[in-house]
Each structure stands twice: as C-alpha cells, then as structure tokens.
Amino acid sequence: MKLRVDLNSSIPATRQIAEALRVHLVEGSLRPGAKLPSVRRLAMELGVHFNTVAEAYRQVASEGWLDLRHGRSATVIERAAPAPRKADLAEYRQRLRELISQMRAKGVSQSKIAEELRCFAEELKS
Amino acid sequence: MKLRVDLNSSIPATRQIAEALRVHLVEGSLRPGAKLPSVRRLAMELGVHFNTVAEAYRQVASEGWLDLRHGRSATVIERAAPAPRKADLAEYRQRLRELISQMRAKGVSQSKIAEELRCFAEELKS
Amino acid sequence: MKLRVDLNSSIPATRQIAEALRVHLVEGSLRPGAKLPSVRRLAMELGVHFNTVAEAYRQVASEGWLDLRHGRSATVIERAAPAPRKADLAEYRQRLRELISQMRAKGVSQSKIAEELRCFAEELKS
Amino acid sequence: MKLRVDLNSSIPATRQIAEALRVHLVEGSLRPGAKLPSVRRLAMELGVHFNTVAEAYRQVASEGWLDLRHGRSATVIERAAPAPRKADLAEYRQRLRELISQMRAKGVSQSKIAEELRCFAEELKS
DNA sequence: GTGGTCTAGACCACG
DNA sequence: GTGGTCTAGACCACA
Fold first, then answer.
1. Which nucleotides of strand F lie under 7 Å from a protein CB?
2. Which residues pair with C75 in a beta bridge?
3. Could you tell me the pTM of the whole model?
4. Digit-coded pLDDT (tens) for B88-109
5. Touch between chain C and chain D (3+ CB pairs, < 8 Å)?
C-alpha cells in the first residue's frame, strides 16, 4: 500500500491521508482483515507527526472502515455498505455543482472540466 | 435572481452566498452588465448582517466576476478568464476524487456516480 | 458564573471545566439564552490555553446544552431532557459501585463514604 | 469467584478485570487468605493475554490487597488500610459529582438519584 | 510494541 | 470580536 501526500499542498495532511486510505478501501486494495501500518511507522514514512496519521485513522474508523483499539494495530473490518439515502444524493449533486463553479471561477475552461469529469467516469467503469 | 441560504445550516452564511452567486454567474443567469442588489438590501432579504453579504461579494469580486466600487452597485463584468494555475487544477482533481470516494462510502454505486459525472460533463459542453 | 479548576490536580483541565459547566447547567444557574464567556476570556481567567476551554465547550455542546457556532458566542439552548433508558441506569449503578470500591481500596472508610453519599443525596433533595 | 469481561467493550480488559477484583475484595467475597487463580489460568478462562491479567493483579496488589510473589499464587492479605490522602478524597468527591451530573443530563430525576445514593450508603453501613 | 490524551501555538474562518 | 483547524510534543494506557 502506498500513499502519496504533498506536504506543500494547501490541503491538510490529515485529510490527504484519510482520503488516500478511503480510496484504497473503496477500491479494494485494502480488504477486511488487513492490518494498517502503525501510526508511528506510517508517520515516519510520510514525514508527518504521528498524531496527524492517528487523526486520519480515527476519521476513517469513524466511518466504519477500521477497528481501532488501544494497543492493537488498526485493522480493516467488514463494512455493511449503507443504503444511499436520497437526500445524500441530492447533496452530493449540489456539492459537485459547486465544485464545478469554483473551477470555472478559477479559470479552468468548460471543456477542460468536462474532460476531467469524463476521465473520472471512465475510471469508475472498470 | 434568488439565493437560498439556510441560517441554521452548519455551512457558514458567507460561503453559502458566495457559492450561490458563483453558480448563477457560471451558469449564465447573471450576465455581464447585470447589477447585483445592494449589500444592505440583500442582507435584509436573507436575514444576515450586511458584512456577511459584503464579504461574499468581495470573495466573488476577487475572482474577477464583479466590479465593486464605492457608491455604485456591484456590477457583473465581462471577465478575462484568469489562467488556471497548475496547483489549483491538481487540488480540484483531488477534491473531485475525494467527493467520489465519499459517495461510494455512502453506498452510491459506481455506475450511478459515473452517470452523474457524464451528465454534468454534457451540460458543460453546451 | 464562577468555575473552579485546579491546575495541579491530576484531573485534566478540560474535564474539570466541562464538568463545572455541566453542574451549572444542570442546577439551573445557566439557563437557556445565557451566553457563555468567550473561550479566550475564560481561558485567561482560568489560566489555561484557549483550546482547553474550547474543547470543554465542544464536549458540553455535543451533549446538547450549547449552540456553538463559528463567530457567535456560545449560547445555552433549551434542551429536551431525554428519557432515561433502563440500560443507562444499570450502567450508572455499576459505575457507582466501582467508584465506591476504588474509594475503599484507597483507604477511605466505609462510614466516611456513606456519609459522602448521604451528603450528596441531601443536596439533590433541595 | 467469577469475573465478567467483555472483550468487545471499549473499556479495556485490564481495567475491567481490576474493577471486578476490587468489587469482590471490597464486598467480601474474596477474604484474606484466599488464593487467586494463576495469571495464566485466569487469562485463558477470560480469553486475554496473560500480561493483561498480570497487570490487573499488579494494580490491585499495589493498593495493598494482594501478596504477589514469584512462584506463589496471589493471595489476598489482611491489609492495613492505607491512610486516604486528602487530595484523593477531593478527587473522588469530584468524580461522584461528575457521575451525578451525567445521570441528570441523561434524564434521571433528582429524587431517583438521591434514592440510589442512599441505597448504597445503607449497604455500606452493614 | 500498539493507539490515545492532553495541552499548546500558529493560523484560519466567520460575523 | 467570535469559534475552529491543523500540527505538534510530552506523556499515558493497553496488550
């Protein structure tokens, strides 16, 4: 498992790590039963404080992906996929619309954005 | 032009207003030359402090959408699209990826997400 | 409103502050609508870091006592008293039994403990 | 003597074991002279690592309840009740107050709480 | 060895 | 002015 974090990015390291973990979890490269590296080890590898990693683990655990208990290493657990609520979908659509507005506001062209979206859509197909 | 803000929401009012403006600007319901309501009037309508609206106007203006000068009403301007910085693009891609992971974590199926993305991409083409 | 915290105590300041707030809230000296002092002001008064107070506020707010929103001062809110669940009562009884065992283990005499308990019971009557 | 520990509980095993022992010791079901099961045996029964049991024994022993020596089984001893330190008493009073606030916050009525306290006080008298 | 807590300081966002 | 976030370091608790 390899995680990339960019310490110079304006996106906080905690969020980057949590997000990278979610990607692995969602995509199946981290399966139930797998043990994550210890917070301290991963922190050293990434060049961040161990609390930064610990917080990321906690966030992901609070979403039901990890069993995180004192003294034991963090373990991926079987996770009952919740049924998506309609309200959630509407909210996500709204957030997507806002994200696109922001991109256009920052000067990214419509065609470039459309290309990005299609690119992600393709990735999901596989 | 109608803006919806929910004062009880945990999303801060400033951001809600700025987002709503951006959506209108980007989607064309606010065209160059259009005049926005005065800060105080809009504030009264929305039930927020006028500074809150002023801050939202300033944010949107700083992105090049508005001509904001003392004594005149805020006017939408034809804006030279700023060159998107590479770092920005990377950040937006990251945020998009994150949004998608969250949707999947919430139980939205891959195909459903892909469909949403393509749908937005189509809208942008036109 | 006066809060006492003992920085030399082994009990963490955050917990002491949260607890002191709870006592005021439960006993009615902080009523719905009342505004708490700002985290920074209270922190200065108590001689702790403002984050310590902020965390205490957050804990109490998460129990439904406070309206805690960015930029506004913390306000006591009307709180629907939840119906006590039976399981809760059993748990509290267990915790009380454990607390008493610990006191006896530390050398506090039975009669002294009984006296304490009766003393608290009296306070509650009024 | 039977101890219940719940390995799935968020309460750590060590604490659960130590608490359970204290309750037995204080309430008299473990009297001076009684021998506790060996660390390994109890650990096996409870399904925990023997170090976990050993740590619990050590904690209880450090409070003067047990004679814990290499090669002999842990034995309950007649203990000279240690003099309670004033600071301890204050801390316990604080914890009791905290427990009561929590009960009230959870919706348990004052009179119900007072009744519980008096009930425990009576038990101690005998 | 593991993860967790508490405190702290620099900086940010909101009104 | 308000509260909040992020990172950090010393120390603690658990297995």
1. 1-10, 13-15
2. C35, C67
3. 0.83
4. 788 888 888 888 888 888 888 8
5. yes
